[in-house]
């Protein structure tokens, strides 16, 4: 009797080992095929350029190609919904920005996902200011002059933003409230078309992530009126902050992070986190961020989760008071 029990126990343990072994091998061999990095904006903007620089470096470090998949529209919700519904196997991850990873939750009534539940945070990559930029033909050089001109020309000015509900859109609305003026918002599918229309005098102003605009300001092709951080941007040291321009306490920061579908194995999250942190501290990573006017952050998945929570707490009351809904 006891010998049969012992034999059955041994066979059970052996069978369990056979069942568990493939799962262990899958974890150990990740990645065994290309990884898709989903970008919530169109190709060509500064955010896209950072995603592609990171994707190339991750591919080299992980030994598998990382392919950037641009899925623009709905303030990042199209891309985020795709990632949220993807298998949590580490082969579909998102290059997220404030909208799809946080703020859209505050504005969209019928959001197909809850960012705090749908995504596993990986790492906070970088931060950068937003810029208030104007076409050269607009007769204003400061925020004070913009306020005066907009008040004298009600309803005539428009401002390009990289999508409905994006940080550029929210910040534009808040700045208008702070200045006591109203301008028409013109949403685009990403940064590149905003830049094109600003250069082509199709829009008067742009409120957007800063990187794509710095070279144009330096070349004198557009005019920077202000940056939205509490301190001046090193790349445009002569451009005042919104606070310096007369709006006390005003601050908005763009940020970029990696996230994966909830349920993605922790060892996969850890490998992606380590590889991204290595990129940020490498000469290649530092050069890429400097070129794009961004500041590296890095850190742990837990740190990113805490940061997103803080962003929601910060913007929630503001969005509610401003009655910004999508």
TrEMBL record:
InterPro entries: BUG, Bug_dom1. SUPFAM superfamilies: Periplasmic binding protein-like II. It comes from the Bacteria. Belongs to the UPF0065 (bug) family. This is ABC transporter substrate-binding protein. It comes from Rhodoplanes elegans. The lineage of its organism: Bacteria, Pseudomonadati, Pseudomonadota, Alphaproteobacteria, Hyphomicrobiales.
């Amino acid at each position: 009797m006891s010998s049969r029990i012992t034999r059955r126990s041994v066979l059970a343990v052996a069978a369990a080992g056979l069942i568990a072994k493939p799962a262990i091998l899958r974890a150990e061999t990740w990645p065994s095929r290309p990884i898709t990095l989903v970008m919530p904006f169109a190709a060509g903007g500064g955010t896209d350029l950072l995603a592609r620089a990171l994707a190339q470096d991750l591919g080299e470090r992980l030994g598998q190609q990382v392919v950037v998949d641009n899925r623009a529209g709905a303030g990042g919700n199209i891309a985020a919904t795709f990632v949220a519904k993807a298998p949590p196997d580490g082969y579909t991850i998102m290059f997220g920005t404030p909208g799809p990873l946080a703020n859209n939750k505050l504005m969209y009534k019928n959001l197909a996902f809850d960012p705090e539940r749908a995504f596993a945070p990986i790492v906070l990559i970088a931060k950068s200011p937003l810029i208030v930029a104007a076409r050269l033909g607009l007769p204003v050089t400061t925020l004070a002059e913009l306020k005066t001109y907009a008040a004298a020309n009600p309803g005539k000015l428009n401002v390009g933003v990289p999508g409905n509900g994006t940080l550029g859109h929210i910040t534009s609305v808040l700045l208008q409230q702070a200045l006591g003026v109203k301008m028409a918002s013109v949403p685009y599918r990403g940064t590149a078309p905003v830049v094109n229309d600003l250069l082509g005098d199709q829009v008067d102003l742009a409120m957007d992530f800063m990187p794509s605009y710095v070279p144009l300001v330096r070349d004198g092709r557009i005019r920077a009126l202000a940056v939205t951080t509490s301190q001046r941007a090193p790349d445009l040291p002569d451009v005042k902050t919104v606070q310096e321009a007369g709006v006390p306490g005003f601050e908005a920061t763009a940020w970029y992070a990696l996230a994966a579908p909830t349920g993605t194995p922790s060892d996969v999250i850890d490998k992606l986190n380590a590889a991204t942190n290595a990129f940020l501290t490498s000469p290649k990573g530092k050069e890429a961020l400097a070129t794009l006017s961004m500041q590296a952050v890095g850190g742990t998945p837990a740190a990113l989760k805490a940061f997103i929570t803080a962003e929601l707490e910060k913007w929630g009351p503001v969005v509610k008071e401003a009655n910004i809904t999508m």
